Amino acid sequence: MNVHFFDNSEANGHLAPREEVKIERLEVTPYPDRYRIFIEVDVTPFAERPNLLLVAHDDNDHIVGELNVIGTMHPKMEFTMHIRGQDDPAGVYTLTAELFYETRNPPQDHQMVAFTIPQVDTP
Q1: In this predicted structure, what is the pLDDT of residue 5?
Q2: pTM of structure
């Protein structure tokens, strides 16, 4: 009996060694309520499970959300992050993703993406 934990179809059966694992895609979409964001992260299909740190900052560089992923089992991930400490979340933000194994200093790979939470629509 074979038990498969990974979908190797996208990688044609190749799982990258840890030194080749990178963040391949990072996308952020604000939810209509404006206090949450939908995050999509794709990493290289891997042989050893990596860690991720996702941090959202406002335009004053204050941390408004943080998420730690320890030893992910999936190369394609989706998360919902709440925007904290904002009376009105409208504005420009950045989301930073760091991929690492034992240490984040320095991370093995990192990406940053900017996103905007719109003003509330008034009738």
Answers
A1: 54
A2: 0.86
